[in-house]
Amino acid sequence: MIKLEAVNKHFGDLHVLKNINLEVGTGEKLVVIGPSGSGKSTLIRCMNLLEKPSAGRIIIDDTEITAPKAPITTIRQSVAMVFQQFNLYPHKTVLENLTLAPILVKGVSKKEAEESGLLYLDRVGLRHKADAYPAQLSGGQQQRVAIARALNMKPQIMLFDEPTSALDPEMIQEVLDVMTDLAKEGITMVVVTHEMGFARNVADRVIFMDQGQILEEGTPEHFFTNPAQERTKSFLSRIYHAS
Amino acid sequence: MPGPFAAFKWVALLNEWQTFAEGFLHTILISFCGLVLALMLGILFGILGSSQWRLAKLANRCYVELIQNTPLVIQIFFLFNALPRFGIMLPVFSVGVLGVGIYHGAYIAEVIRAGIQAIHKGQMEAALSQGFGYWSAMRHIILPQAKRVVYPPLTNQAVSLIKNTSVLAMIAGGDLMYNADSWSSSNLYYGPAYVVTALLYLIICYPLTRAARWLERKAEVTA
Asked: In chain A, what residues touch B144 (CB-CB under 8 Å)?
């Protein structure tokens, strides 16, 4: 479903991604962990070309998105992203946030977009907020709306870029619950997170990144019981001591 | 010797009020068309200036710096005197519209650019991530949000534009200022002519200034 071949990314002198090779299967739930500045956000942002790799190829569903004339807007319709800062459209109501892109980008009828939108709002427990504006919601609610907005595009892939990092601690769980529920479906998920409980419960595979490289990958069992690398061990122990 | 504001001068002005009304109407028309042009140029170059493309940014800088750093009078003289040398003869009305339109377009471009850049970059990223193209994202996501920020400074630009149409008096523009000037230079009744002219500008500009203040307060409340 997603394939990265020798992907490199430079920001000026900074070498943020170093020769990344990675494959994510259809329906797989991949969790990316690692210290800040390790390149995990850049990695996930390359997957829908919000960052352009400096070198290497990224292939999504048999289409090379790094090709010069790749139909990137078409591909992005099936690769939804949930951001750390939610990025809801503040001038639109919650329901309009969900229906705007399906109507304008995919050409879905307004009625159809609203019906499915309400279903997804129901699913994240916020149907009663359909007519509210984002500023009237708590952070946790905003992020749940953002997830519903992503879902209303009916994507095949969902990218989560630290979806709980900007939330107050008491709101993290409600967002993780929605994501855990979502993971039961066939959708392919790539999640950058510091939530080790989520990684343990939901991930099919975990990768640990440090200094722009994938240092270790394996099942959650492997990671949380017997990681091989010293760096991984020290990172995990620091995370656990913190929480 | 009668004073500059002697009563008979006012009477003369009242008797020939059409001269002032005509100029006033002309000023309003030039202002309106000039404002439409300025807005179109301003929005286009404002978006170019806020984009990531180097050429677009360069185009924005050239336009804005060239226009903002030369006097409006010279630009008007150029349109009026230099273009005919290249075989382009514009009616004075068009010179007026182009002159103030291009001039204030450059200022409005900066207002729009600042407005766009005030919107968090996550908004554009969210729109792109949903499959919006750049221009479509601008239209549906970014500009509607930037609107609230730019209304007050835009209104100020509209006021300046109206006042600056008076520069057209220097090329026989047929605007309010020109008519006042030519009327009073033939009879030397400068006093009433300029007072009335100033009042007429005030009548259009004052409500706009008030509107700008109101929009400013509104933007503060909803921000």
From this structure: 91
R_g of chain A, CA atoms, integer Å: 18
State the DSSP code for B167.
G
Distance from the B35 Cα atom to the nearest Cα atom in chain A, whole angstroms? 27
Cβ within 8 Å, pair B130-A90: no
- Does the pLDDT at position A81 exceed 90? yes
Rounded-to-integer distance, Cα B163 and Cα B175, Å = 11
Contact residues, A window 17-76, toward B, CB-based 8 Å cutoff = 48, 50, 73-74, 76
At A160-214, the pLDDT tens digits run 999 999 999 999 999 999 999 999 988 999 999 999 999 999 999 999 999 999 9
- What is the structure's pLDDT at B220? 67
Give the DSSP letter of residue B2: -
Q: Scanning every residue of chain A, which has its alpha carbon at the shortest distance from the alpha carbon of B124?
A: A87
pTM: predicted TM-score of the whole model, two decimal places: 0.82
What's the topology of domain B7-222? MetI-like fold (1.10.3720)
Q: Is the pLDDT of residue A115 over 70?
A: yes
DSSP B170: G
- Asked if A91 is an interface residue toward chain B (Cβ–Cβ < 8 A), one would say yes
A101 CA to centre of own chain: 18
pLDDT of A243 reads 56
- Under DSSP, the state recorded for B82 is I
CB pairs below 8 Å between A and B: how many? 56
Quick check: B136 and A50 CB within 8 A?
no
Residue spans of the domains in chain B: they are: 7-222
**A84: closest chain B residue by CA:** B122
Residue A88, chain B, CB below 8 Å: the answer is yes
The string of pLDDT tens digits covering residues A117-141 is 999 999 999 999 999 999 999 999 9
Among B60, B5, B125, B158, residue whose Cα is nearest residue A83: B125
Mean pLDDT, all residues of chain B: 91
Name, in order, each residue with C-beta under 8 angstroms of B18's C-beta and a sequence gap of 6 or more.
none
Q: Comparing A114 with B11, which gets the higher pLDDT?
A: A114
- CB pair distance less than 8 Å for A89 and B123: yes
